[in-house]
Amino acid sequence: MTYVVTENCIKCKYMDCVEVCPVDCFYEGENFLVIHPDECIDCGVCEPECPAEAIKPDTEPGLDSWLQLNAKFASSWPNITQKKESPADAKAFDGVPGKLAMLSPEPGEGD
Known about the structure:
Strand 2 (26-28) and strand 3 (33-35) form a beta hairpin. The protein is low in regular secondary structure. Helix content is 14%, strand content 11%.
């Protein structure tokens, strides 16, 4: 089992999860975070820290595509281990459906 970041993180990117991860398995995109599935130790401390409730265990049904997306971007985006400021409009996007089309494939800054 691993944890995956799902659609509601897109354009929210709160980053509360990053600072509690004991193994630094988060990677930063321009407007989204991902968890590297091979680095995640399944501790679950990140899940309750996410204000957008975007982190889920991969055992939940229907998350296969999100697991694949997390793995894909974790291999090319920079590692992030410290919380940064969320986007100014994060609250406006929290809970908005259909955000996958807004996902930028561009990397973030990382640490």
